[in-house]
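Thought: the user wants the 3D structure for the chain below. I'll pass the sequence to the structure tool as-is, report back what it returns, then summarize two notable features.
Action: structure_tool
Action Input:
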Amino acid sequence: MDCLDFQGLEAIVNWRKFQIFPWVMALALVLSTVLTACALPQVNAQERIFLDLSLEFLDDYELPKRPFQDTPVGGLSGITYDRQRDRFYVISDDRGDYAPPRFYTLKLNLDSNSSDTPKIASVEIESVTLLKAKDGNPYPIGEMDAEGIAFASPNSVYIASEGITRKGLAPFIHEINLETGQFVRDITLPKRYIPDNPENPTQGIQDNLGLESLTLNPRGFGDATVDPYRLFTVTEAPLIQDLDELDADMPPKNRLLHYLISDGPPILISENLYTLDDTVRWSLYQGLSELLALEQGGHLLSLERNFGFLGFGAKIFEIQTGSATDTSRIASLKGELKKVEPIKKRLLLNLQDLGIELDNLEGMTLGPRLADGSQSLIMVSDDNFSPDQVNQILLFRLKF
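Observation:
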């Protein structure tokens, strides 16, 4: 309906009111409400669901391949930021083939001569921390595939291992002491994520497609005993029991886990259906490699990466979990799920539109405030310890 000139309508009402006053006045009241609304900004349903976000690309930096304290710097699969110390912690997915499982502490130096287009001036590797199991020794070689990392103030990081199905090794999430690398506690995963048979599993994560992502809500800056926080992770690909192998038209169905972390045992709040983007063409592989929680509750960013004949690709989505159905009691997500509401998502940025060569991007975190007060976002790539790949670090400005 077009917005009409209400003053003209009022003139008509005044001219005719002596003939049909009651009817005209009633009609005028209704139209007044409608026409007044025409002057208000029109907001569609999607704009009400999602935040007003955008990403501005600022810089592409390559971290040199070199040894550091007898370890090769590579396999960088996850990154998290410690705002109080102004340091980044980056997990390596080395299973022990080159050095023990570990994370690095990085200092990122920005060239802020121009607040409009800051660049990465340098990245310093300050230390490496070896991860230790419950017994106090480094995790055995080949029994940990660390992919995700999330900092928890004041002195912990959470580590996600995606498991190795063919070896009968289950995925896990462990809290680790930031300074010593020592195991603190385990975050119990539901049994449906644990493979039931290494040789021919009928449930659980697929081999090398488990938990790649890990994030904590940004408000959890304090000790969990006084300031509980939320932890999120999602499978890289569908669980075995959720695969739609006979229906290629169904989008891949991943499961997202949401925990409450406090001074007691971690509590699983909910599990939700996350559908992967099904518009990627000429792709040999596609999966979800990272989540990033935003300060606004129920809103996160997700990183979906793919690889095909044209190289690596990646997309960042904004997702909203508030209206999603809890799937924790659904044994299998196969087929069409008419009564299951998935997590809502919208494309925020297709990184292939940046015009730069992308590597295997797997990690994403909010970084320091830029010189103009805006929020930075940092991404890292996993070079797979391959001479043909690089340790790529990307810098963005996240605009609210």
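Final Answer: Structure generated. Residues 6-38 form the longest helix (33 residues). Helices lie at 6-38, 45-49.
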